[in-house]
Amino acid sequence: MAYPAPSARCLADLAERLGPAGLTTDPADLAPWLTDWRRRLTGAAAALVSPATLEEAAFVVARAAADGIAIVPQGGNSSMVGGATPAGPAEGRALLVSMRRMRAIRSVSAGDNAVVAEAGVVLADLHAAVAGAGRRFPLSLAAKGNATVGGLISTNAGGTQVLRFGPMRSLVLGLEAVWPDGSVLHGLAPLRKDNRGYDLKQLLIGAEGTLGLVTAATLRLVPAIESRAVAWIGLRSAHDALTLLRGLEDRLGEAVESFELVPAEGLALVLRHIPDTRAPLGEAWPWNVLVEAVGDGAVADRLQVALIDAIARGTAGDAAFASSEAQADALWKLRESLSEAEARDGMAAKHDVAVPVAAMPDFMASASQAVVERFPGTRPIAFGHLGDGNVHFNVRAPAGSDDRAWFAAQASAVSSFVHGLATEAGGTMSAEHGIGRFKRGDFVALTDPARMRAMLAIKAALDPAGIMNPGALLPLAEKDEPQ
Ligand code: MLT
Ligand code: ZN
């Protein structure tokens, strides 16, 4: 057996150090956390361990390391790729380490434009906490009510404001984490510059818990929004969407924070399945974008003038402007509930690909054609972060088919095909969701051997016993391959 189960002695040590709130082996306590967000994978763990402080977290890792016990870190359990589900090599024998009790905002500094938040802080709570200090944390995504700081860091999450502020990787100023041997990286100083060799925090960002346990982070803040302008725009083509984006940037510069693409069939799914939604435009356009621009009181006028001009030139077809915060939220709801609407409609093979931004309109067209030729009847649908060159190029089951049977038989082949197309186009099979357990096979198959060797060398150096999140991101060790 590659990974031992924790002994009674080990569990007793953990219980003694963490107290009753910090450790449970009761199946009823574990059950909600054993199935992934997309409800496609269920694992098993020996115990749910919930440290409340850095010291407790370090104790947990050190104690596990002493016996070679696997650790699966978990935040809000909202991974899109099964990254926090204790399935795979150490199934039933791992400690599922929940960071949800480490939920303090340790400090908010307007002077440093920085917040120090523990790993278990939920993104929506972080937004609220810094708003109280007149600041903004500029990363948002649909799962903000569940996703935690630690998970966002470990997946290098993106979302709907990457266009201006970048993904998590560009928002982390400092990190505190427990290395796989139980020692601690104390790196929370809010430094804008630090040239002491390797940037260890960047190594942990996007590592999916395979190199250490993130316990807290210092995150960059920006000024609170004075005014935002939100518009929904109907377009004839995805190429027009790209032309519109660059045109808006020419006129509004960095004020353009979000530029989200929604195809006609995506909007139709939302209107069909999500209550309290209505079409923003009188006509159904083949493509739509949701634009948010942020600035002073004049930003709405500037966006309006730019869009009227785009309509006059024929780049845009029509536009609806939000004239209140409620209307802005209603437009955002159309975009943010797309995934949910798609899920309610039936099973789809879901992807998160990126290619160079300028190549995305052609990629979406050629990849859709290639998928339909190879898998007749399937219905590709691409939506999302066009401004970042990242779309969720999902493939729905053929209309009228038994979608569960289709998914079981076809989804894996469809995904490998789509991941291959993105890679061939000079892009990536994972732009913002990570690799986790769902995409590990394709990642290993499609990754340049030299890149994979470097990753494995880093893993071997920092976690030689392989206790951190086995089965996620990296190829299985030989000892863990299914026999
Ligand atoms: C989104 O952009 O809506 C999210 O990444 C979720 C998803 O892909 O389903
Ligand atoms: Zn997304």
Outline the structure in words.
This protein is an alpha+beta fold. The chain folds into four domains: 8-100 and 461-480, Uridine Diphospho-n-acetylenolpyruvylglucosamine Reductase, domain 2 (2-Layer Sandwich), CATH 3.30.43.10; 105-223, Uridine Diphospho-n-acetylenolpyruvylglucosamine Reductase, domain 3, CATH 3.30.465; 227-339, Alpha-Beta Plaits; 346-424, 2-Layer Sandwich (Alpha-Beta Plaits), CATH 3.30.70. Helix content is 35%, strand content 19%. The chain is built from 16 helices and 19 strands. The strands form five sheets. A five-stranded antiparallel beta sheet has the order 5-6-10-8-9. It has a four-stranded mixed beta sheet with strand order 1-2-4-3. Helix 1 (8-18) packs antiparallel against helix 3. The longest helix is centred in the last third of the chain and has 22 residues, at 403-424. The chain is globular. The N and C termini lie close together (12 Å). Bound molecules: D-malate and zinc ion (ZN). Keywords: FAD, Flavoprotein. Belongs to the FAD-binding oxidoreductase/transferase type 4 family. This is FAD-binding oxidoreductase. Residues 41-224 form the FAD-binding PCMH-type domain. It holds the Pfam family FAD-oxidase_C.
How many strands appear in the DSSP assignment?
19
Helix and strand content put the structural class at alpha+beta
What general form does the structure show?
Answer: globular
Mean pLDDT: 97
Q: Which molecules are bound in this entry?
A: D-malate, zinc ion
* Count of discrete domains: 4
